[in-house]
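Q: Sequence in, structure out?
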Amino acid sequence: MDCPHCSSIKTVIIKRTTNLGYSIYRCRDCCRTFNERSGTPFNFIEVPTDILFEVLLCRCRYKMSYRDVAEYFLLRGFQFTHETVREWEERFAPVFGEKLREKRRNQISTTWHVDETYVRVKGKWCYLYRAIDAQGNLVDVRLSETRDLEAAKGFFFQAKTIVRHLPQKVVTDGLNSYPRAIAEELGEEVIHQQVNCQDNRFRCKNF
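A: Exactly. Output:
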């Protein structure tokens, strides 16, 4: 791997590892050593990166409390406090989210099913815009204080930026702001199909 200090490609692996088992390299140009996590946001973290990602999964997907997460990993031999879990979530949840977005790029079909719902986040009510493709894969989500044209345009702008391609068809409910938002952000050539709420794919069991 390239040297994170001088970007040289003249690096060699040496016969020892870090305490967490990561390979150590030496750069022949600047003579500095580094490991697989050097130059990444995860350098100097006391646990392996995959364990850190599992901690974030417990918090973001399964909604476990900070203390429950710390106790769960203590049973697996990893000791850290609930405050450490809180700090990791604050630091690395955005990195985690970006990695998930990268996986969605070039994996989304050209038919998007879009809907919005009213949710409460940290005690505050707001609108959650969301979209899935024809196979049920997540396109993107966005929170907004309003449910209007600007909010819809903001969602479509974010979605096309993440996915990096435009849909051929967008299926929505009867919200008045969608036709203009689709035309202005995605283009007038994108087919817009309106369906009744009961026919929306978000209401189906599989989604």
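Residues 123 and 143 are 14 Å apart (CA to CA).
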